[in-house]
Amino acid sequence: ETISLGEKNQKDGAEIIKEREQRAEAKQRKKRKGRSDAFD
């Protein structure tokens, strides 16, 4: 049970990291686009 719990935590960690990267990417894209971001 401990192993499966660790695997779950590892997967959740990867998901969180992926989400964080996507959010940072979106923020940078928004900054780069500037005013044209309104058309998104």
Which keywords apply here?
40 residues, mainly alpha, 1 helix, 0% strand
Structural class by sheet pairing and helices: mainly alpha
Query: What value does the Rg take, in angstroms?
Result: 16 Å
Q: State the oligomer.
A: single chain
Helix percentage range:
over 70%
Beta strand count: 0
User: Tally the helices: what do you get?
Assistant: 1
Largest sheet: none
Task: List SSEs in N-to-C order.
Answer: H
Termini gap: 45 Å
What fraction strand?
Answer: under 5%
Q: Unreliable runs, pLDDT <50, ≥5 residues?
A: none
User: Which overall shape is indicated by the principal axes computed on the Cα atoms?
Assistant: rod-shaped
User: What is the residue-averaged pLDDT?
Assistant: 77
Could you explain the architecture of this structure?
It is a single chain. This protein has one helix and no strands. The termini are far apart. The protein has a domain at 14-39. The model has no long low-confidence stretch (mean pLDDT 77). By secondary structure, the protein is mainly α. It has one helix at 2-33.
Structure in a nutshell:
Helix content is 80%, strand content 0%.
Topology:
Layout: H1 2-33
